[in-house]
Design brief:
The chain is α+β, with helices and mostly antiparallel strands. The chain is 36% helix and 25% strand. It has helices spanning 125-139, 146-160, 167-177, 181-188, 194-209, 216-228, 233-240, and strands at residues 7-23, 28-43, 46-60, 66-67, 97-101, 108-112. A hairpin with a 6-residue loop joins β5 (97-101) and β6. The protein binds zinc ion.
């Protein structure tokens, strides 16, 4: 009889704290969970020894988008104390706050004026990753065609529920970073929940399918994306069924 010892490493999520926050995607106050991802040494698929923290994210319990921790610094409008009346000649919005426009015109959000925030910070990690990966796929053959741009807008709107204003600027940014899709996805895996990872696989599948068929090399490439995202192959296969 041959005995196999099955071991490996895997990310395990746990909730550090929870509460109410301003969700940029829902554009309103929502419940959140702040989760951390810890790498564990596993034996027979059971996590045994923690090897260190991989990352953390804030997850909206309504839309399931995940954000960097700084999203918790956004004011929850409804929780602002009403006893502190603003001077009559000053609107509450001008009292130490600036209005930051949100991509896709989903209104505006209030931030402390001292924060040096950009719109990009408050896209969810899923939205950032889908945008970047789709652009990397467009750039793969070295040419940017109108049909690809058209397809990008369609897929991004459908899977990220957002629109991109200046796609050519975004393409330049991705070009300058000069990262491979696998390197990039490995770096963001611990900032995403399962819903986010599945949406990324689904959107890459839609781009691959846009020329009429999906060949074996494209299927293999998408499996590599899933692996970089720390997904099981069963999870990738399920997400590919669009
Ligand atoms: Zn939300």
């Amino acid at each position: 009889m041959i005995a196999f010892i099955i071991f490996g490493v895997r990310g395990v999520r746990s909730t550090m704290n929870e509460g109410q926050f301003f969700c940029p995607q829902c554009a309103g106050p929502r419940s959140y969970k702040h989760k951390k991802v810890t790498t564990f040494f596993t034996l027979y698929f059971i996590p045994l020894i923690p090897l260190g923290r991989k990352g953390d994210y804030v997850e909206c319990q309504s839309c399931k988008n995940t954000f960097v921790q700084r999203v918790l610094e956004l004011e929850v409008e409804e929780s602002r104390p009403t006893t502190q009346a603003a001077p009559v000649d000053q609107s509450p919005a001008s009292a130490g706050r600036v209005e930051i426009p949100v991509e896709s015109g989903a209104g505006s959000i209030s931030l402390a004026a001292t924060q040096n925030a950009s719109n990009e910070d408050f896209l969810s990690e899923k939205q950032k990753a889908i945008k970047k990966l789709l652009i990397m796929m467009i750039l793969a053959d070295g040419r940017v065609e109108d049909a690809e741009i058209h397809m990008f807008h369609k897929v991004y709107r459908q899977t990220a529920d957002k629109v991109v204003g200046d796609i050519y600027r975004e393409i330049e940014l991705v070009k300058n970073e000069n990262l491979s899709p696998k390197e990039y996805l490995k770096g963001v895996a611990a900032l995403l929940n399962d819903e986010g990872k599945e949406a990324i696989i689904r959107s890459s599948m839609m781009i691959a399918a846009s020329d009429g068929d999906i060949d074996d090399s494209e299927v293999e490439m998408i499996h590599q994306f899933g692996k970089a995202l720390d997904m099981s192959s069963a999870q990738v296969k399920l997400a590919m069924q669009i």
